[in-house]
Each structure stands twice: as structure tokens, then as C-alpha cells.
């Protein structure tokens, strides 16, 4: 399978330093309140270690410590590895971005931070080339799992993952890691540990170390051209 390289076009990042607190100097994890999810603001935020995580009002965070994945390490059970080898599924990138986001937001009987505001904002971010999805379809063409996130330069921020069919979200993550490694990505942000990401191999690093690694990863804040061929 061939992977297309990222676009050579480099985005000029608009300055929002008067809106956000400086993540390097503040001890607060909330570094901004309000604003909107326009592409310029999101680009500034993600290239400075900031992400939105609540609505009404919008709250912007830079956590300390920060949870990340090593792109060379993903802990999967023997059952999941067997499913990956069997390949009784199809993997696509960016075929159903909105559907993936809405599936991630579907949390019966519990609240979700992925509100209509987030869906609208990230759909625009996707159309502008910075938010991406990976989908895993079963042999009957049903969407069984997926992941979406933000790619800027050599940095990927994983936003959310879902599985409607057993292990399909983990299969999506496996193929996402593979694609990012092939395209030279150096940092995968998962923001905060939870039981799922911890079990998959995520770990925490100090905020300042994360920001140092991020600055190198987004030095050229190019758009990523995700694979266009089905797996």
C-alpha cells in the first residue's frame, strides 16, 4: 500500500496570544475561556499545546502532566492482533469524518463533551485539511469503529475513538499508527490518561517536555495528506 506525503504548503499561524494564557508560564490548566472553533484559533491552540474540552462556555486546556503515545508501541491483545491479521474488514481515511465524530459523541445515558458546537467546528477544521478520521468497516459495509483527530506538521492529536463492533476502534488505532509512522510523525497527543488509553500503552510526561517536543513537531505546520487507498 502506498502512502501520500503531506502537502508542502505551510500555513501561517494567526497570533492568539492575547486570548490564551501562555502555557509555558501559567500553572493553570484552563488557559482560555470563550472564543470559537474557527480554523485560525484551533491552529494556534493545537500548535501551542492547547485544546478545547468543554462547551457553554468553551474552555481551553493545557494539561500537566500530558498523556502521549509512543507511535512504536501499542499494546493490543492477542485477540485483536489475530483480527488484524485476518483482515476481514476495510480501513479508509476521511471517507466518513462527520459520521465518525457523531459516533464518538454517541454516549447513551452519559454526558459527552462532543457537542454540536464541537461537531460544527471540527467539520470546518476537517474541510480545511487539519482534522482527519480513520474508519473500519466490516465485511457487510457497516462502520464498526474509528478514530478522529488533528494533524499538523508531524504532530497528531487524537480526539476520540469508538467501537460499535468489538475491537474495531483498536484496529483503527493500529492502522492510524502505521500511517503516521510511515509519514514521519514524531508526537501523538492523547491529552489525558483514561483506563482505555493506559491499557493501550499511553503514558504521561511533564507539560514542559511535551511543549518542547510539540514545538519541533509543528515547526513546519503542514497539512497531512492521509492515505487515499483502502486497506
Automatic annotation (TrEMBL):
Top EC class, one word: transferase
GO molecular function, one term: leucyl-tRNA--protein transferase activity
Subcellular location: Cytoplasm
Record keywords, A-Z: Acyltransferase, Cytoplasm, Transferase
GO biological process: protein catabolic process
Catalytic reaction equation(s): N-terminal L-lysyl-[protein] + L-leucyl-tRNA(Leu) = N-terminal L-leucyl-L-lysyl-[protein] + tRNA(Leu) + H(+); L-phenylalanyl-tRNA(Phe) + an N-terminal L-alpha-aminoacyl-[protein] = an N-terminal L-phenylalanyl-L-alpha-aminoacyl-[protein] + tRNA(Phe); N-terminal L-arginyl-[protein] + L-leucyl-tRNA(Leu) = N-terminal L-leucyl-L-arginyl-[protein] + tRNA(Leu) + H(+)
InterPro entries hit by this protein: Acyl_CoA_acyltransferase (IPR016181), Leu/Phe-tRNA_Trfase (IPR004616), Leu/Phe-tRNA_Trfase_C (IPR042203), Leu/Phe-tRNA_Trfase_N (IPR042221)
Keyword Transferase: yes
GO CC, one annotated term: cytoplasm
EC number: 2.3.2.6
HAMAP family found in the cross-reference section: Leu_Phe_trans
Family according to the record: Belongs to the L/F-transferase family.
Biological role stated in the UniProt entry: Functions in the N-end rule pathway of protein degradation where it conjugates Leu, Phe and, less efficiently, Met from aminoacyl-tRNAs to the N-termini of proteins containing an N-terminal arginine or lysine.
UniProt-recorded name of the protein: Leucyl/phenylalanyl-tRNA--protein transferase
Organism: Leptospira perolatii
Amino acid at each position: 500500500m502506498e502512502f501520500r506525503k503531506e502537502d508542502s504548503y505551510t500555513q501561517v499561524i494567526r497570533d492568539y496570544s492575547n486570548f490564551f494564557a501562555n502555557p509555558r508560564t501559567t500553572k493553570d490548566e484552563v488557559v482560555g475561556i470563550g472564543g470559537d472553533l474557527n480554523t485560525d484559533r484551533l491552529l494556534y491552540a493545537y500548535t501551542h499545546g492547547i485544546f478545547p474540552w468543554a462547551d457553554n462556555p468553551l474552555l481551553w486546556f493545557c494539561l500537566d502532566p500530558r498523556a502521549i503515545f509512543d507511535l512504536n508501541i501499542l499494546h493490543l491483545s492477542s485477540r485483536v492482533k489475530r483480527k488484524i491479521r485476518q483482515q476481514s474488514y476495510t480501513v479508509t481515511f476521511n471517507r466518513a469524518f462527520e459520521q465518525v465524530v457523531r459516533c464518538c459523541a454517541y454516549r447513551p445515558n452519559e454526558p459527552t463533551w462532543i457537542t454540536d458546537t464541537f461537531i460544527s467546528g471540527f467539520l470546518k477544521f476537517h474541510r480545511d485539511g487539519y482534522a482527519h478520521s480513520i474508519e473500519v468497516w466490516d465485511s457487510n459495509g457497516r462502520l464498526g469503529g474509528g478514530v478522529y483527530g488533528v494533524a499538523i506538521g508531524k504532530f497528531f492529536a487524537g480526539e476520540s475513538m469508538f467501537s460499535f463492533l468489538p475491537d474495531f476502534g483498536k484496529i483503527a488505532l493500529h492502522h492510524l499508527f502505521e500511517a503516521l509512522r510511515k509519514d514521519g510523525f514524531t508526537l501523538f497527543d492523547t491529552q489525558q490518561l483514561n483506563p482505555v488509553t493506559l491499557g493501550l500503552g499511553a503514558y504521561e510526561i511533564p507539560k514542559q517536555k511535551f511543549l518542547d517536543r510539540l514545538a519541533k513537531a509543528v515547526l513546519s505546520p503542514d497539512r497531512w495528506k492521509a492515505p487515499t487507498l483502502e486497506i
